[in-house]
Amino acid sequence: MALEITDANFEELVINSDKPVMLDFWAVWCGPCRMIAPIVEEMSTEYEGKAVIGKVDVDNNQEVAMKYGIRNIPTVLFVKNGEVADKQVGAAPKQVFTAKLDALL
User: Fold this and answer.
1) Residue 19: CB partners within 8 Å, gap ≥ 6?
2) 24-74: per-residue pLDDT in tens?
3) DSSP 3-state assignment of 34?
4) Residue 52 and residue 14 in contact, taking contact as beta carbons nearer than 8 Å
5) 24 part of the active site
6) Any catalytic annotation for residue 26?
């Protein structure tokens, strides 16, 4: 299951991670977010131990969303060594997300 990333645990789970991180910025009311949710969950199982897969609810964690200038959701950030290495704005097929994450492994 994808980790719930919050303003409180963001630094510990994302910035200080020794593995690449895929972060899904989403909200309950967002239709395209619900479309990619099963992909994010599948990937959290497939990449267990190799990468951190997390979800940030933008309504409840506005600090992180503002820090990264998230204006459209879903936005998926790919973070390595505490820095944003890639991103995907909007819904996309699973292979788009896996290709971006694989490039960081």
Assistant:
1) 50, 51, 52
2) 999 999 999 999 999 999 999 999 999 999 999 999 999 999 999 999 999
3) helix
4) yes
5) no
6) no
CA distance 50 to 31: 29
* 11: number of Cβ within 10 Å: 12
CB atoms within 10 A of CB 58: 20
Tokens, residue 7: 């303003």
Residue corresponding to tokens 């690449």: 20
**Interstrand relation of 83-89 and 21-26 (parallel, antiparallel or unpaired):** unpaired
Q: What percent of the chain has pLDDT over 90?
A: 99
State the catalytic residue, choosing from 14, 21, 22, 33.
33
Q: How far is the C-alpha of 62 from the C-alpha of 49, rounded, in Å?
A: 28
Q: Which of 14, 21, 22, 30 is catalytic?
A: 30
What six digits make up the tokens of 76? Answer: 């998926």
